[in-house]
Design a protein that fits this description.
Layout lengths: L1 H7 L1 H7 L16 H14 L7 H16 L5 H22 L1
Length: 97
């Protein structure tokens, strides 16, 4: 029984203690997409453990959370997180241009 519960909640554990990125507490519950994107960008750029580019790492973590939250994610928060993706792209595009 214990293994079943552990296996079921593995994504929550990854969100709480990602090895690749040190996320600010509650970042995915914030209501400001720009603030979420900026936090993910900073976390990804400061991480020495990530395996991909900062943009890929930040976007992957955001997509991971959206996908894993699934039906339990309120529509309003899903819209905020999807807008955070747009903001994240903007932040990294400014650097590349």
């Amino acid at each position: 029984m214990d293994k079943k519960i552990k296996k079921k909640n593995w994504s929550a554990e990854v969100t709480r203690s990602s090895f690749a990125l040190d996320l600010e507490e509650g970042v995915f519950t914030w209501t400001d997409p720009k603030k979420i994107a900026a936090s993910l960008k900073t976390s990804a750029e400061n991480s020495l453990r990530r395996k991909a580019s900062p943009f890929q790492s930040a976007m992957s973590m955001l997509n991971f959370y959206i996908n894993r939250a699934g039906k339990n994610l309120p529509q309003k928060q899903k819209e905020i997180l999807n807008q955070a993706k747009v903001e994240l792209r903007k932040l990294f595009t400014l650097i590349l241009v």
